[in-house]
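Lab notebook, entry 424. We have the chain sequence and a SMILES string for pyridoxal-5'-phosphate, and the next step in the workflow is to get a structural model of the bound complex before anyone spends time on docking refinements. Request logged below.

Task: model protein plus pyridoxal-5'-phosphate, output structure tokens.
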Amino acid sequence: MDHTRKLRDLDKKHLWHPFTQMADWCAPDHDPLILVSGKGATLRDSEGKEYLDGNSSIWTNIHGHCHPHIDAAIRTQIESLAHCSALGFSNEPSIRLAEKLTSLFPGDTLTRVFYTDDGSTAIECACKMAIQYRQLSGEPERVRFLSFENAYHGDTAGAASLGGIGSFKGRFDGTGFQVSSIPDFESLSRLDSEEIKKITAICIEPAIQGAAGMRTWPTGMLADLRKWCDHNDVFLILDEVMTGFGRTGKMFACEHEDVIPDFLCLAKGLTGGYLPLAATLTNEKVFSAFLGGYEETFFYGHSYCANPLGCATAIASLEVFENGRVLENLDTSINHLRDELARHFQGEAYVTDIRQIGMIAGIDIGPFDWRELTGAKVCRVAWEFGLLTRPVRDTLVLMPPLCTTTEQLSAMVVALKQACQRVL
Ligand SMILES: Cc1ncc(COP(=O)(O)O)c(C=O)c1O
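Result returned:
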């Protein structure tokens, strides 16, 4: 039996994949790709076939796979220390990364970094900080959160309770935080003052809701939301798990509207898409409320908080941004992607909308019954044209690594178009 076949059989025997109907996965006619290597925006499978990484390996990869500077930083760090506890000790990469992250914001705004493991735990951490802050500040009744319909903030119970997508959270309703879901900014004006006094924070994916199907917010909405939060003494939690690290054309999506949140949640692209590491940033006002005795301590954390290897990787990724002038040069790629999407998809009968912010694009196809999984079928066929991506229902997603060349961007769009033509 060849090596790939053996691995596929073992996978089907022992693994349980995320967000995957395992009956389909384990079906005899499903041959999962086993990815073995990557370089830049390209991935290679165990049978030697190459693919373009059209969704940055689930929205994580920033500078490409096997980037020499990041690889070297990992090698250097692993020779001294892969992991040590952040409970009672510290380590140099986590200190240097915190300095670097906070320096990306105007002085005295986001000054504190709490490390966690992934997007979900970065959100959980912000929510728990917000609740405990209220308790420590004499407002224990402020325990509720506001979040938006169709939002996605992760899958742990707390993070999922802020989500607004029924199929992800419906079965677990009643677990997690106390949350009210609102459709848009305008609906805030319908909340009465007594209700508002029970709210500790509002959580939003700025600029664009990812898992909702790359739905963009109206320009100006985030700045209005910041003003509403200030006026009502409600914390603003920004979930930049997807939008952070250049994805929208700026380092962080909140920069498009000059908004500084009270809590900023970062994950996915923090390590350039290499390792699981997350951070919740906040300000001195929040931090100082926790300074007191044992009772005031923030009793929260994970075994791998501030993991030195992850932090060294994140520093290297930020250095690539600086040394390669990545953001300064990104407009060419963003404009090229826009032109190619318009050239190949605009006017096609099956396309109902195309949205793009920076290097994030969503192409709605239909109208189809989403249960027919048309988007998934298109993306499956795209493998044959050398593209790996994943839809959100019938929204086809392209979110390539920032390093993707213009030729590769064109090839991605053409592959997606060919897949559409084959399936539709
Ligand atoms: C906006 C947003 N928040 C949070 C998460 C959860 O992140 P993780 O999967 O790392 O827990 C995601 C994941 O897709 C996301 O897109």
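Notes for the group: The chain has two domains: 33-63+327-423, 70-323. Worth checking against the assay data. Residues 70-323 form a domain with the Aspartate Aminotransferase; domain 2 fold (CATH 3.40.640.10).
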